[in-house]
Amino acid sequence: MFERIREDVRSVLDRDPAARNAFEILTCYPGVHALLWHRMCHRLWRWNLRWLARLLSTFSRWVTGIEIHPGAKIGRRFFIDHGMGVVIGETAEIGDDVTLYHGVTLGGTSTEAGKRHPTLGNDIVVGAGAKVLGPVTVGDGARIGSNAVVLKDVPEGATMIGIPARIAGKRPVGHTERREATARRIGFDAYGQTDMPDPVSNAINSILDHIHATDERMQEMCQAIRHLGGQLQDVELPDLSCCEMENGSSPTSRQQRMAPEDEAQAGDR
Questions:
Q1: What is the SS3 string spanning 47-59?
Q2: Distance in angstroms (rounded) separating the CA atoms of residues 96 and 79
Q3: What are phi and psi of 52, to 5 degrees?
Q4: pLDDT tens across 93-126, in order?
Q5: Alpha helices for the chain (secondary structure H)
Q6: How many CA atoms lie within 13 A of 186 on its CB side?
Q7: Would you list the DSSP string of 66-100?
Q8: Contact 141, 171 (CB under 8 A)
């Protein structure tokens, strides 16, 4: 149990830059509270103590503003950011490393018993206000845009937008993890960067893919040189986190770069 809690805290620290420490997460994050309540309610539901499970889940909804039915199945490292207004139905199934934002509904479209809620795979992000309705399947690595309404199955790696939701782009599964690893290695923070159809986003993602391909080619060349008996020294990339771009049009920036004699001449003019 404590290992799962530590895992939940680490997942919040990885995905939310506003999170400062574990104590703040455990005391101030309603998404974490709702998940802890759900685990207890889900166990009671499996033990056929269903009235008690529903009662406690109702209390959890009142405290956190997040409604998760005790029958829902949720995987590891699940994160609900902000969380107010999130609704997860009884037969919903959620994989690992899934992120939901506020106002998300995983709801049903049928009044008949049986599977009537969505199934989400792994590594999925559902934007604020999005609705995924019915027994649809959302493939691994998919992205659901804010306020989108998903009524049909979503293929792996697809980005869905609109009402009803349509595919706005698709990427091979695994590109996100590779890009994030490359971005961290070169000191670039791409928080909130998704594969939406935006020219700037596409340019950044293409640059990260190019850097990754270049690194792989360089590693192959280094291995070949070592295999032939050459000596190569391992060099770590410099940390770029402290680098800042200066605005050349700023008077303050120009004054900071001017030498003392240049400042004197500028004063005379």
A1: CCCHHHHHHHHHH
A2: 10
A3: -65, -40
A4: 999 989 999 999 999 887 778 899 999 999 899 9
A5: 2-15, 22-28, 30-46, 50-64, 175-185, 199-227, 251-257, 260-268
A6: 15
A7: -EE-TT-EE-SS-EESS-TT-EE-TT-EE-SS-EE
A8: yes
Instruction: Give the β-pairing of 79-80 and 131-133.
Output: unpaired
| Token representation of residue 3 | 């290992």
Q: What's this model's pTM, rounded to 2 decimal places? A: 0.64
Could you tell me the sign of the dihedral formed by the alpha carbons of 115, 117, 118, 119, in that order?
negative
Length of the chain: 269
pLDDT per residue over 137-193, tens digit each? 999 889 999 899 999 999 988 888 888 888 887 765 556 666 666 665 555 554 444
Give the whole-angstrom CA distance, residue 201 versus residue 207.
10
Residue at 164: amino acid letter: P
Separation of first and last alpha carbons in the chain? 73
What structural domains and CATH numbers belong to the chain? 2-171 (2.160.10.10), 174-243 (no CATH)
Q: What token pair was written down for 183?
A: 């971005």
